[in-house]
């Protein structure tokens, strides 16, 4: 195991991380996008992005795009490289506000979090479409880990914290259980060559209807490229 520092809330840190990784000249077979914050008070990243959208979504969007060449070079016909992005069931109630992705007009921690998780699903489906169109031996899937007992809930109100403390042993998954579907997506032979899937409890399931809107996927992708400062390859 080797550790390389990367702050997903910093575009500069992400670019530095990718440079350090590339310098090692090693293959990349699996990328799991799993960083995140939830229900944080209104705050901006160092790049000026609303924190949920900037860290949960844009950080992973930039990281994945900068590592795509390494993933494409590592994947083969019989062993595709795999991208796994962790979303949440919260995406089902999320709304994507293309004219206000930074939640400047009306900030809601719940709304901002749900939007970031919906954006991850839209991103995954668009990414798989582009990978397939390019004939790349890389698959992209999105995972719902379920309700997991982690520190992600530190910003919820005290009532929820009390309920969580009383019921976590019964209703919440352990971190190990929460990771199981991500691991399944990363290494299971059953997922070889399968992309564009939404997975829950190690099974393919249906995501929110809006996530299948290809025009919305395309518009979000194009806008995301502008926000993080990379060329939109899909525009060619």
TrEMBL record:
GO-annotated cellular components: extracellular region; lipid droplet
Pathway(s) of this molecule: Protein modification; protein glycosylation
Enzyme's top EC category: oxidoreductase
Catalytic activity field: a di-trans,poly-cis-polyprenol + NAD(+) = a di-trans,poly-cis-polyprenal + NADH + H(+); a di-trans,poly-cis-dolichol + NADP(+) = a di-trans,poly-cis-dolichal + NADPH + H(+); a di-trans,poly-cis-dolichol + NAD(+) = a di-trans,poly-cis-dolichal + NADH + H(+); a di-trans,poly-cis-polyprenol + NADP(+) = a di-trans,poly-cis-polyprenal + NADPH + H(+)
Keywords: Lipid droplet, NAD, NADP, Oxidoreductase, Secreted
Entry's EC annotation: 1.1.1.441
Listed InterPro entries: NAD(P)-bd_dom_sf (IPR036291), SDR_fam (IPR002347)
Chief subcellular location: other
Cell compartments where the protein resides: Lipid droplet; Secreted
A GO term, aspect molecular function: oxidoreductase activity
Family listed: Belongs to the short-chain dehydrogenases/reductases (SDR) family.
Protein name as it appears in the record: Polyprenol dehydrogenase
Species this chain originates from: Cuculus canorus (Common cuckoo)
